[in-house]
Design goal:
With 819 residues, the protein is of the alpha+beta class. It folds into five domains: 240 residues, Jelly Rolls; 154 residues, Galactose-binding lectin (Jelly Rolls, Sandwich); 146 residues, Phosphorylase Kinase, domain 1; 193 residues, Transferase(Phosphotransferase), domain 1; 57 residues, no CATH class. 23% of the residues lie in helices and 25% in strands. It has 15 helices and 40 strands. Strands 1, 2, 3, 8, 11, 14, 15, 16, 17, 18, 22, 25 and 28 form a 13-stranded mixed beta sheet that branches. The N and C termini lie far apart (86 Å). The N terminus and C terminus are likely disordered.
Length: 819
């Protein structure tokens, strides 16, 4: 790689740093803690205070000691440590809720009296596992620095240190520092599959790589948020593929949408541009390679600033993450309107399918006049998994539950104190939401209409308040052998009430504000709703800070379990149609069964449950939201939902309608016929997203080529055709082009009738004539309105009916003469 001198850049940036100091972001919360130290410690121009002298910090530790060294440690921040023999915690008072850096420093001091190199370190926050049994024994470096971005949603943050039973744990220094809310958005663009990803604000992030392309190492002295940016050289796949370029940092022109908090001008003033590499594939002229854990997703932020062009619109190039082109024909100046203007983009990706590596590449666009490509900066942050862990497969609750009872009780006490204030306010809200739940024993009296066409399914509103002891008795104290599943809200257990009634008990995460919101929403929605295709809420428990919901037990579990991933018997085509019809009825009732519609927002195969008779019921209303009023077309709201099922129009415009549920249901229909997940990153690119893949084959009229092989030769082609067309309409790009759930329901019932007709016509008992009991086939008369009922706006030449006999038979089913 060609080298450049950064001394002129250093001198040029002094003026920028001094002039811009007044506008720099100031952290409301700014804890710099030197653990175990007896005096202040200066590190990277900042002062770290001893953990015993910080007035807004509470150290809960019954058995800890300190160690120090002035000569061996790599820097002053590592010269002291606090060593814990029992589970202990630091409680930080938070003045400003929102994202905070949580930075941890570790160095195993040799003269501590303990073998700190072999000490397993486990550290958790209220909701996230940061480290799980880390030891320096299996680590290549001599010291360790970890940086996390945690969204704090209460007035305190508890950092718990958990030693193993036979060892100790330690930490040298801790930072808890507030950062701008706009630094990390809630949404990003998904990569492989190409689909929106939302909900980042509720997830924990860990900085894995932060690179200053083509420039020097940047430390807290050069970054308003005290970040470290390392040079990219060691990650380059081919050294000679890139050349350093740079400008005076003072020449960087920040637009309104990008501030120095996104990245300092040092990052945008340097870049890697294309060199003279002999790379086989020109599209990957400059590639950076990073080890990545395949069990996690990563937030990838790419930083650009056109510092190489002499005029506008000269630099056009492509950007790749792994093998996916995430930014095609990128013309920076056309986006920013000028040269030297910063621009960045966020993506969510995982490691490549065939290796535990994540790659980022830039290469020239084939249509560009100038053959060049650049990258100025790169950040890669690990995203917490479904258990809230950034290190391993155990949740915070699981780690605390496995502690000796004495230590566990101490942690619980701390947690209870933290949650006490929030609980007082919460109980008031819950009582307001549930007042009607306690007293109503008759059908809804609020004037809500019940026009779903299935009013016989609607039952009186009953909601029971359980004592926590009743929940413990029903679940045998949450016996893990009774665990039914784990979701974002919490764990679900099978239970048995005192009268023998089987129930499903969902125990929420009491430390999660999002969990509290879902808890209240679920009760508010389901206490008003009763329908034979909605999972019934039997009651709830809010005792002892618990958030527990008790539902009717669904013996056959989620629909997904019967489609793939288990060894359960294959569902017949008729069963699948009946299940889809049941779910459609439930959603149709949500959309039309009350004065104001309800939008589910999380329709997927895990939220469609089956009872002992395989009757489908829609479940999990934690993300549900009241639909638009009569005089509105949509509800403007932040994007919520599940990756792979999100309505693309909802994601783009953040405008929610009932048609968003219809799109998600279209994905479910494709899952049902193809028996594979909505997203499967290990498949070839064109097959990753089932909605895209299924639509490709459906539009060719060849859905049967990708359907479940167990159904081969067992499905009436006319029934499959109608089913496929229904799914296709649900998955229309724009909501206005999608059918209502009522239309979806009608079409699915039509598909079932076509399948039923086929099976009856093929009955072997009577070879004299094909017939359906009670229907005279000798005087068939067409039902002229059947086409318009099936699909509005289609002509009488509708090709849904593949042959005249089937058409005639169906017309008799919907309008039999003489009956």
């Amino acid at each position: 790689m060609k080298s450049v001198s950064w001394v002129p850049l250093v001198l040029a940036s002094v003026m920028f740093l001094s002039n811009g100091a007044s506008s720099l972001f100031e952290s409301v919360d700014n804890y710099l803690i030197a653990c175990g130290s007896s005096k202040n410690v200066t590190f990277q121009g900042r002062t770290f205070v001893p953990d015993t002298l910080q007035s807004s910090l509470v150290l809960k530790s019954a058995n800890s000691l300190v160690a120090s060294s002035s000569s061996i440690a790599p820097s002053p921040i590592y010269q002291s440590a606090r060593i814990f023999k029992e589970t202990s915690s630091y409680k930080f008072k938070i003045q400003q809720e929102g994202r905070h850096w949580v930075r941890l420093y570790f160095y195993p001091l040799a003269n501590s009296g303990q073998n700190l190199k072999t000490a397993p370190i486990t550290m958790v926050t209220d909701n996230f596992v940061l480290l799980n049994n880390f030891t320096f024994e299996s680590y290549n470096g001599s010291y360790l620095f970890k940086e996390y971005a945690i969204n704090v949603t209460s007035d305190s943050l508890i950092l718990t240190i958990i030693p193993s039973n036979s060892s100790v744990a330690f930490v040298n220094a801790i930072e808890v520092v507030s950062i701008p809310d706009e630094l990390i958005p809630d949404q990003a663009y998904g990569v492989n599959p190409s689909a929106p990803f939302s909900g980042l604000s509720a997830l924990g992030l860990q900085t894995m790589y932060r690179l200053n392309m083509g420039g020097p190492l940047l430390t807290a002295d050069n970054d308003t948020l005290k970040r470290t940016w390392e040079n990219d050289a060691k990650y380059l796949h081919v050294d000679s593929s890139a050349v350093n370029v740079s400008i005076n940092p003072a020449s960087v022109k920040y637009p309104v949408a990008v501030t120095p908090e996104i990245a300092p001008n040092w990052v945008y003033a340097t870049a890697e541009a294309m060199g003279d590499a002999n790379v086989p594939n020109g599209n990957f002229n400059i590639t950076w390679v990073f080890p990545a854990d395949p069990n996690y997703l990563y937030l990838v932020r790419v930083h650009f600033c056109d510092i190489v062009s002499k005029s506008l619109n000269n630099l056009v190039f492509n950007v790749f993450i792994n093998s996916d082109n995430v930014l095609s024909s990128l013309d920076l100046s056309s986006i920013t309107g000028d040269l030297n203007v910063p621009y960045y983009k966020d993506f969510v990706a995982n490691s490549s399918a065939d290796s535990n590596m994540l790659t980022v590449s830039v290469g020239p666009d084939s249509m560009a006049d100038v053959t060049n490509a650049i990258l100025n900066g790169l950040e890669i942050l690990k995203i917490s998994n479904d258990l809230g862990s950034l290190d391993g497969s155990l949740s915070v609750q699981s780690l605390l539950r496995n502690l000796p009872s004495k230590s566990y009780n101490k942690v619980i006490i701390v947690g209870c104190v933290v949650g006490a204030v929030a609980l007082v306010a919460t109980v008031t809200v819950i009582c307001c939401c549930l007042a009607s739940c306690k007293s109503k024993t008759t059908p809804n009296q609020d004037g809500d209409s019940q026009n779903s066409g299935t009013t016989s399914c609607i039952s009186p509103n009953r909601c029971r308040i359980f004592r926590f002891q009743e929940i413990l008795d029903a679940t045998n104290k949450f016996d893990e052998s009774l665990l039914l599943g784990v979701g974002g809200f919490g764990r679900v257990y099978k239970g048995t009430l005192e009268d023998g009634t089987k129930v499903a008990v969902k125990r929420g995460n009491t430390r999660s504000e999002q969990g509290l919101i879902e808890f209240l929403t679920e009760i508010k929605m389901l206490s008003k709703l009763r329908h034979c295709h909605l999972v019934s809420l039997i009651g709830y428990c809010d005792e002892r800070t618990e958030m527990i919901l008790v539902y009717e037990y669904m013996a056959n579990g989620p629909l997904r379990s019967h489609l793939y991933g288990t060894d359960l018997p294959t569902l017949s085509w008729k069963q699948r149609l009946e299940i889809c019809i049941g779910a459609a009825r439930g959603l149709h009732y949500l959309h039309t069964g009350a004065a104001q519609s309800i939008i589910h927002r999380d329709v997927k195969t895990t939220n469609i449950l089956l009872d002992e008779n395989f009757v489908a019921k829609v479940a999990d209303f934690g993300l549900s939201k009241a639909g638009p009023a009569i005089d509105q077309t949509h509800v403007s709201t932040a994007v919520k939902g599940s990756f792979g099922y999100l309505d693309p129009e909802y994601f783009r415009r953040q405008q929610l309608t009932e048609k968003s549920d219809v799109y998600s249901f279209g994905v479910v229909l494709m899952e049902v016929v193809c028996t594979r997940p909505a997203l499967n990153p290990v498949l070839p690119r064109e097959q990753v997203n089932i909605a895209e893949w299924g639509l490709t084959w459906q539009k060719k009229g060849m859905l049967d080529q990708i359907m479940d092989s167990n159904l081969a030769g067992k499905v009436n082609p006319a029934s499959l055709k109608k089913f496929g067309e229904t799914a296709e309409k649900c998955l229309a790009e724009y909501g206005a082009d999608r059918p209502s759930m009522g239309d979806v329901l009608w079409n699915l019932e039509y598909a079932l009738q076509l399948e039923h007709t086929s099976s009856v016509l093929m009955e072997p008992e009577d070879n004299s004539t094909n017939h359906i009991r009670d229907i005279e086939l000798t005087t068939l008369e067409p039902f002229e309105n059947s086409v318009s009922m099936i699909e509005r706006g289609r002509s009488g030449t509708d090709d849904d009916v593949e042959d005249a006999p089937t058409s005639a038979v169906f017309s008799q089913l919907v309008n039999p003469p003489g009956r």
